[in-house]
Amino acid sequence: MATLIMRRGSHYFSAPPVRYPIGQGSVLLWGMLFLWGAGGAGLWFWLLQGAGDSVARLSVALGVWLCAAGAVVHFWRQRLDGVLQWDGVRWHLEAGPPGDPVHPLKGALWVRLDLQSHLWVCLDEPGGRRTWLWLERQGAPERWGDLRRAVYSRPKPEATPADEPAAARRPPA
């Protein structure tokens, strides 16, 4: 059995700096389309079972399904393209297509779902805004290990308490 021994004074393990591309998420797109299609199949089955004899119920169900389709399209068109960067102290998100002016976002990154080759993360900015990102290994396989180490590492000791998200800070006693 291996034991991890931490030397006195080295309470922080930090990951190397990493830049990781974000944007295209084929697994996310196919998953959203699958859920939307499954909803359509459920609606069709419901209609075949006799629920379609009420025009009001049919209209509401079809309206909800079309709203779900609109939400999928809206979400897909509003996703961010850019580069996620860890400098050892804080996270930066350079969002925007290549060639456009960069609007960097800074904040703390929290993992919300870890599927080993896919990560769903939330970037909490100091102003309270949240940016949700879907990261896939296929974006840059050679840097995936560094990214995974970075999302689970603690900031270097020179990070200030202002760099922590509000939920992690304790109120003064």
Shape: elongated
Q: Which CATH architecture of the largest domain would you pick?
A: Roll
Mean pLDDT, rounded to whole units? Answer: 76
Low-confidence spans: pLDDT under 50, at least 5 residues? Answer: 1-11, 165-173
Q: What is the rounded distance between the termini?
A: 41 Å
Order of strands, widest sheet = 1-2-3-4-5-6
- Biggest sheet details: 6 strands, antiparallel
Features:
single chain; alpha+beta; PH-domain like; 24% strand; disordered N terminus
Report on this structure.
- There is one protein chain.
- The chain is an alpha+beta fold.
- It has 2 domains: 18-23 and 80-157, PH-domain like (Roll), CATH 2.30.29; 26-78.
- The protein is built from 3 helices and 6 strands, in the order βααβββββα.
- The chain is elongated and about 65 Å long.
- The two termini are 41 Å apart.
- Residues 1-11 and 165-173 have low confidence and may be disordered.
Offer a concise description of the structure.
The chain has 173 residues and is α+β, with helices and mostly antiparallel strands. It has helices spanning 26-48, 55-78, 144-152; strands spanning 18-22, 82-86, 91-95, 103-114, 118-124, 130-136.
Layout of SSEs?
Layout: E1 18-22, H1 26-48, H2 55-78, E2 82-86, E3 91-95, E4 103-114, E5 118-124, E6 130-136, H3 144-152
Antiparallel strand pairs: 1-2, 2-3, 3-4, 4-5, 5-6
